[in-house]
Specification:
A hairpin with a 5-residue loop joins strand 3 (69-76) and strand 4 (82-87). This protein has 3 domains: 1-35, no CATH class; 47-125, Immunoglobulins (Immunoglobulin-like, Sandwich), CATH 2.60.40; 130-174, no CATH class. The termini are far apart. The protein contains 3 helices and 8 strands. Strands 3, 4, 6, 7 and 8 form a 5-stranded antiparallel sheet that branches. The protein has a 3-stranded antiparallel sheet with strand order 1-2-5, with no helix packed on it. By secondary structure, the chain is of the alpha+beta class. Bound molecules: calcium ion. Residues 154-156, 158, 160, 162, 164-165 line the site of calcium ion (CA).
Amino acid sequence: MHDNYALISVKLQYILVYEDKRISNKPFQLVFTTSADTDPITEKPLVTYITNALDQIVLSWSDVPHAEKYHIFRSKNGEEHRFIGTTKETNFLDYEDVQRGYTYSYLVKATNINSYILSNEIFAEIEVELSDAINALQILTNTASSKQIVNIVDVNNDGKIGIEEVIFIFQKIAGSRP
Ligand SMILES: [Ca+2]
């Protein structure tokens, strides 16, 4: 199946280059993927995370024997897991739409051409702090400087900081909300 794939790919490239009349002075490149690891994957990736000062979530996991790629899936606040990226490394930096106060859950899928295995589920959160509540209050009362950015959860999904977010932060800090 693999060889067929390569053959089709070569033919396709030949036709494209030929039709483009560039074949006379430019030899096309052959791409082979014969080094694929076909041994079954039996070990789960063991995932851990840290957060950094830029409010990013840095995932890393154990190197799984025979894995060629890792696919990363994320769930935000209990929603369904969605695919967010692929890497050949054993780490992944999540910086897109990461907001304080939300709970994120990650799964890493180790794959090769014949098999795959899912990691443990890891939950990550960037905790809200009192300064977030103060920032939110300043935005709410129009006393915030234009440089103030509040990267916190939008509790009621209205695209702005309101009293709902302030209450949410206080509840989080007080520990009356998980
Ligand atoms: Ca809001």
